Amino acid sequence: MKILILNASPKPLGTISQMLKFLEDEIRRKNPSAEIENIRVSSLKFSACTGCMKCRSCGKCVFAGDDADVAGEKIASADFLVVASPCWWGNMTGSLKSLFDRNVFRLMGESKHGIPLALLKGKEAAIVTACTTPFPFNVICRQSPGVFSSIGEILKSAGIKITAKICASGTKQKPGLTMSRKRKIVKVAKKI
Fold this sequence. Notes:
Residues 1-130 form the NADPH-dependent FMN reductase-like domain. This protein is an alpha/beta fold. 40% of the residues lie in helices and 21% in strands. A hairpin with a 5-residue loop joins β4 (108-110) and β5. α1 (15-30) crosses α8 (179-191). The model has no long low-confidence stretch (mean pLDDT 96).
């Protein structure tokens, strides 16, 4: 099984990164034959999507060959995705959104009538987020749910089934890998 982890946190030692390291270790422990790759989205070098829509007709981006293109190929070839982003204004990070924008032609096509067509059916994913806002205010203020919704919309449009979600709220008061967060991660690792 090929597992791709997309880490959209710019903090290599932040809560998201700690959670993903623990998740990766748990997956390896439960499934030693799994092929796991971890991509730090903030370290990728690529041009932002210009909305030219040429990828729809030619099947590749006009900026093909940069890091977004390479990451997109890995997304398309993975069996399972772990997409992780801290909550920024109730949404995913801009770098993750830009990566998805650049790879729209790999995620979804369209019929001759303009109806979206999912191109990655059969794949599964988990979404991981962290938010400084404590529970239940992270939910009431639509912080964590906003991240799940925005990433989920992209994955669902691609035909990817979301099998798990992990949310670490209140990270300002309780940063890092708490016991509660470890328990959630262990449950998710069992599903992969």
